[in-house]
# Entry
Amino acid sequence: MVERSIQSLTLREQLVEAQRLTRELSEHLDQAFIPKCLELTRLVRPINGEPPDVRALEDVTVRTQAARILETETFTEKVFAELLEYCKAIESGVNKIAT
# Structure
């Protein structure tokens, strides 16, 4: 199936897709990105008085967790960039209607 360009969509279709992307981004941040960041934080620094881990923290553990966050960030940026394109198209469409 050939995807239509954002500008060829109706304003309603643009709004629906922007809403879907907003929901996807929000869920991704809540369920993936933030938990991974918190996990790395807990690895390197105890939170709220949690006892520190008795075993030594190895560099490879920190690097692995940081790599997971960077992979997640790549997806976050991709979804955000797509959402931004829809927002710009919506703004343009609304401006055409208003003028």
